[in-house]
Amino acid sequence: MTAAESPLLQPALLRSLFPVLQQQVKGQPLAYLDNAATTQTPLPVQQAMLDFEQHDRANIHRGVHTLSQRATDAFEAARTTLKTFIGAGKEHELAFTSGTTEALNTVAQGLWAAGPDKAWLRPGDEIIVSGLEHHANLVPWQQAARMTGAKLRVLMPDAQGCLHIEDLQALVGDKTRVLALTAGANATGERPPYEAMLTLAKQAGALTVLDAAQAVGHTMPAMADLDCDYLAFSGHKMYGPMGTGALAGKRKALELLYPLRLGGDMVEWVEYDRAGYAAIPTRLEGGTPNVTGAVGLAAAARFIEQVGRSRIDAHLHHLRAQAVAGLQALDGVTVFAAQSPQAALVSFVVQDVHPHDIGTLLDERGIAVRTGHHCAEPLHNHLGLGPTTRASFALYNTEAEVARLIDGVARALKVLR
């Protein structure tokens, strides 16, 4: 029995909840295989946001009138839903952000912006990032090192793009102050052993940062079960609205961060020459937040839980295995991280053919994929790659769409060679 026929998940039925998928592109039914960049939003998420806009829209925390109170309740209820969704414990709190990028910048900058006397990072400290990271979990740490005199060290993957715990053991020492790591490489799909790596760094006294953008919509350990001080994720990777996300963390760790947005709502009191900042998480949420987005993000979390993360994962892994097998059977095609069965994406290159040309020809057949460096240029350089073609899967994708992808690549090769 195939995944598409399995009672565990029936994407054909779920597709009706995603109107965007019902269209044609270039005269062909849309096969949307760019989900690692942005997933589509289902009707329940869209409806939750519309209901808020039509009935409860108001600014939060600042009004005694009914709509303000209802908006505040909706915002805080969304926070509670998301904390439950990620498995946060009593020691954790969650601040809303515009996405993973803002969340990671909030951590990296917040650890030095308080100034030399109060900052967590000092000259001579060491920051470890992995060589798998999206630019959003690399560039902010480059800046943190420059601003503080700390040293940035990179945990390099092997020739297959895998990270190894023994290599991290060789890097971690008494100067290690931060480990920043992805839970899933967006460029290759590699899933590092982040649980053990976070524990190793934590035992050395470092703060631990997990980029969960590519993992939060899938089966992953509860945050309370991880040695994780900060966890960042985006709504648009988990069937939620764009411009939404969160930074979750242990309260004591979040309190170390100097707030980046200073102004309304993040203060307890203000005088002309000084101010007192509010408690976590409000301290990190200066200004009017995207309340509608928070409502939509919580609705996306409920949608994922209703469908079932393990069911979604089983379906995605099945589609990925189908794609890997089909692409590897084509002459001159190299698939990366083929050894990662838990991935929900497949990246590949074709000998003597540019990925952008493949992407263009696939688009002519209604198939949407991503081409380029996927905001992980150092990893591509390390692996000896140029840009790649990436197909990534969601719960609404089908075996038939994967077959169209494989056939489309095969036909592109005939045209381009």
TrEMBL record:
Matches recorded under InterPro entries: Aminotrans_V_dom (IPR000192), Aminotrans_V_PyrdxlP_BS (IPR020578), Cys_dSase_SufS (IPR010970), PyrdxlP-dep_Trfase (IPR015424), PyrdxlP-dep_Trfase_major (IPR015421), PyrdxlP-dep_Trfase_small (IPR015422)
Coiled coil: none
Cofactor annotation: pyridoxal 5'-phosphate
Signal sequence extent: none
Keywords: Aminotransferase, Pyridoxal phosphate, Transferase
Aminotransferase class V domain residues: 32-405
Catalysed reactions, semicolon-separated: (sulfur carrier)-H + L-cysteine = (sulfur carrier)-SH + L-alanine
GO molecular function: transaminase activity
EC number: 2.8.1.7
Record keyword Cytoplasm present: no
Top-tier EC class: transferase
One Pfam assignment: Aminotran_5
Function according to Swiss-Prot or TrEMBL: Catalyzes the removal of elemental sulfur and selenium atoms from L-cysteine, L-cystine, L-selenocysteine, and L-selenocystine to produce L-alanine.
Family to which the UniProt record says this protein belongs: Belongs to the class-V pyridoxal-phosphate-dependent aminotransferase family. Csd subfamily.
Protein name: Cysteine desulfurase
